[in-house]
């Protein structure tokens, strides 16, 4: 793809994604080649590539094809890594802030900080309140009370956001502090580079001279023995000097496989806090806060009441996907010139909604029903025929038939190896009672709502 073609494509993208998105996400990319239906774009960071891929790839592909270039997929490579040897290019100037002070030892430079990942933009709810409070405390830059702060949680739950927020806040409050933020992958890359260039002294000096070291996605160094070793020494040197360390990972230190025990135990010796999966209220709060940004980009678009609630209810996997869905919805609506209502939402996000469909299991149903009727799970599954066990059992069988794709024999097996005719009888009995017994009807309603949430 030539610069000229990319220029045309960019101009059209500006109209569809809006000025803000354009400046942040489209403008920094450089065009690469197109081969076998794959168009390559150069991006400044992996994070950047992931974000663009999740939020704008459909639109970009659409415009690339509109330019007469045939491509069905996009491939993102880091700036300057395409044809590195054949076509050496100077590193593109970074547009976002770099935290660490520049040094002259040839191995300085850190990950860019995303200005949107601030404390102000972080929505706090029950699942993340502890992690948020700990991050806030560390960002005050006061005396080191827990070292390290170890933040962990599943994909897209806000670990990187909190790390960037801490770094940016520290930069504001304590500009004299030397704060180094980087991913574990970059740590390894720098270590290998220093070894190769015989600059280990510089490497050690750089890492041991920081006031705050922040390493994102530390699980990456699992299984990489020499990097772990170096990380361990860096860690110890900084802790000895009472310098703050902040680490993030996708799981707790004890659960990171192939990480040496001494590293694990070091990582656990401060404060370990986790970001729990989001709940409905948090998801809705996040959507409401992100709505403001979209409205700035697309001031003419209206969003129908109930759409945000619908998304918060249905997209439960992670915040990144939730955010991506909102961005996509606005971009799509603006592209097709429609307002955002339920129909458009279902059309535009069919794939995301499908992949988020929650699979309810028979075991979950059994657990919820036994809690509801206050009986033991073992009594529900066991052989006792007492009415106080038999009725909840039939309710659970009925819900298993309605809410899962399990067959009657499969359900029977999960209820202590009962025959499929027993399950069928139970299901029919509850179907009858649902019509004649308002208490049972109410129980079913309550239980199915609780299971779906
Ligand atoms: N509580 C929150 N408030 C506002 N935005 C959030 C919140 N949690 C996550 N996000 C947003 O969700 C997206 C994903 O978050 P982030 O990159 O921090 O996830 P992560 O936990 O680091 O994921 P990964 O494991 O993939 O690195 C970001 O755009 C971030 O701003």
UniProtKB/TrEMBL annotation:
<dbReference type="Pfam" id="PF00308">
    <property type="entry name" value="Bac_DnaA"/>
</dbReference>
<dbReference type="InterPro" id="IPR027417">
    <property type="entry name" value="P-loop_NTPase"/>
</dbReference>
<feature type="region of interest" description="Domain IV, binds dsDNA">
    <location>
        <begin position="334"/>
        <end position="453"/>
    </location>
</feature>
<comment type="similarity">
    <text>Belongs to the DnaA family.</text>
</comment>
<keyword id="KW-0446">Lipid-binding</keyword>
<dbReference type="InterPro" id="IPR013317">
    <property type="entry name" value="DnaA_dom"/>
</dbReference>
<feature type="domain" description="Chromosomal replication initiator DnaA C-terminal">
    <location>
        <begin position="361"/>
        <end position="430"/>
    </location>
</feature>
<dbReference type="InterPro" id="IPR003593">
    <property type="entry name" value="AAA+_ATPase"/>
</dbReference>
<feature type="binding site">
    <location>
        <position position="160"/>
    </location>
    <ligand>
        <name>ATP</name>
    </ligand>
</feature>
<dbReference type="InterPro" id="IPR020591">
    <property type="entry name" value="Chromosome_initiator_DnaA-like"/>
</dbReference>
<feature type="binding site">
    <location>
        <position position="158"/>
    </location>
    <ligand>
        <name>ATP</name>
    </ligand>
</feature>
<keyword id="KW-0067">ATP-binding</keyword>
<protein>
    <recommendedName>
        <fullName>Chromosomal replication initiator protein DnaA</fullName>
    </recommendedName>
</protein>
<keyword id="KW-0235">DNA replication</keyword>
<comment type="function">
    <text>Plays an essential role in the initiation and regulation of chromosomal replication. ATP-DnaA binds to the origin of replication (oriC) to initiate formation of the DNA replication initiation complex once per cell cycle. Binds the DnaA box (a 9 base pair repeat at the origin) and separates the double-stranded (ds)DNA. Forms a right-handed helical filament on oriC DNA; dsDNA binds to the exterior of the filament while single-stranded (ss)DNA is stabiized in the filament's interior.</text>
</comment>
<dbReference type="InterPro" id="IPR038454">
    <property type="entry name" value="DnaA_N_sf"/>
</dbReference>
<dbReference type="InterPro" id="IPR024633">
    <property type="entry name" value="DnaA_N_dom"/>
</dbReference>
<feature type="domain" description="AAA+ ATPase">
    <location>
        <begin position="145"/>
        <end position="275"/>
    </location>
</feature>
<keyword id="KW-0963">Cytoplasm</keyword>
<dbReference type="InterPro" id="IPR010921">
    <property type="entry name" value="Trp_repressor/repl_initiator"/>
</dbReference>
<dbReference type="Pfam" id="PF08299">
    <property type="entry name" value="Bac_DnaA_C"/>
</dbReference>
<feature type="binding site">
    <location>
        <position position="159"/>
    </location>
    <ligand>
        <name>ATP</name>
    </ligand>
</feature>
<dbReference type="Pfam" id="PF11638">
    <property type="entry name" value="DnaA_N"/>
</dbReference>
<comment type="subunit">
    <text>Oligomerizes as a right-handed, spiral filament on DNA at oriC.</text>
</comment>
<keyword id="KW-0547">Nucleotide-binding</keyword>
<feature type="region of interest" description="Domain I, interacts with DnaA modulators">
    <location>
        <begin position="1"/>
        <end position="84"/>
    </location>
</feature>
<dbReference type="InterPro" id="IPR001957">
    <property type="entry name" value="Chromosome_initiator_DnaA"/>
</dbReference>
<dbReference type="InterPro" id="IPR013159">
    <property type="entry name" value="DnaA_C"/>
</dbReference>
<feature type="binding site">
    <location>
        <position position="156"/>
    </location>
    <ligand>
        <name>ATP</name>
    </ligand>
</feature>
<dbReference type="InterPro" id="IPR018312">
    <property type="entry name" value="Chromosome_initiator_DnaA_CS"/>
</dbReference>
<keyword id="KW-0238">DNA-binding</keyword>
